[in-house]
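Worked problem 6 (solution included).
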Amino acid sequence: MQEHNKNSTKPPRTHETGSDSGALSGSIETKPSLDNLKRKAADDLDTVKEKAKAQVRNVADKAEEVASEQKNIAARYAASLGSALQKVGTEMQKSDDATVGKYAKELGSTVQSFAKNIENRKLGDMAGMAEDFGRKQPLAFLGMAALAGLAASRFLTASAQKRSTSTASSNLRSDNSSSNYGGQR
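Solution. The predicted structure is:
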């Protein structure tokens, strides 16, 4: 009989119940756990997505807050520039250059009202205003863009020259202070 077991292709059974209920219950048990695992993975993915969306909203809110601060700083700067232009215009009107003074005063008033308008608007509104203005007055828009670019380049050039001059003078001072009496080191 042992020879019969050796030649048999079926694996020997160690525990016989008379039915295949053990094999079926094992596959039934793994199916719910697989479904639970899929559901848990989907829930975790949804949680990660919500957290990512919240982070994106936080970053966008912070960026808008910083941009709004910068807009308000620019508006205050423009208002002070407008005030200075009005003062210059008033002084020029008292002197021999009354016509130029009048224009300078009007320009200062316009710049101040523009600054107040900027400070009271949201960034999205300002972008829409600029877009509308660009469509209605393309040449004026391009001219203002060119002037803004020119002003920015002059500012950057002046600040770069100032920085290189201050760096050179600080290097000169450090060279003079490090030398000993008689020019010997």
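Discussion: Residues 92 and 98 are 6 Å apart (CA to CA).
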